[in-house]
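Q: I'm building a small set of examples for a reading group on sequence design. Run inverse folding on the following structure and report the sequence directly after it, with nothing in between.
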């Protein structure tokens, strides 16, 4: 799975041109399960960045994960997950990844760019798009 993630991260790197000082600081696979589609109050989420934020909250805070979910070194606290949502709004999420995320039961690959370990940009592609 790590090799697949690395290959998908390389593919995602081609989607957006980051600022010159940015570099890939991490990447991970996220399998979007039914639990990821709802917030902590049980309300259905309506945007892909909300679902990906909930996926990371489920993974890091609540211990809820699906087969294929991978650990990331960046989004383990609530402030970082809030930043994730902001970065996703201005980052690259392909149309296919948006649809897969909102449908659930799909695996996406997330590439995190930044300076040092400070994340500044996120790209998301589907399993199919990266050819893994």
């Amino acid at each position: 799975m790590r090799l697949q993630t690395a290959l998908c991260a390389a593919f995602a790197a081609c989607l957006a041109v980051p600022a010159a000082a940015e570099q890939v600081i991490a990447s991970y696979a996220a399998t979007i399960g039914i639990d990821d589609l709802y917030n902590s109050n049980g309300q259905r989420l309506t945007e892909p960045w909300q679902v990906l934020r909930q996926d990371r909250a489920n993974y890091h805070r609540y211990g809820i994960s699906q087969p294929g979910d991978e650990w990331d070194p960046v989004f383990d606290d609530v402030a970082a997950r809030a930043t994730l949502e902001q970065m996703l709004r201005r980052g690259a999420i392909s149309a296919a990844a948006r649809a897969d995320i909102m449908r659930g039961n799909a695996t996406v690959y997330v590439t995190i760019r930044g300076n040092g370990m400070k994340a500044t940009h996120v790209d998301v592609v589907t399993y199919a798009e990266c050819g893994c």
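The chain has one domain: 2-127.
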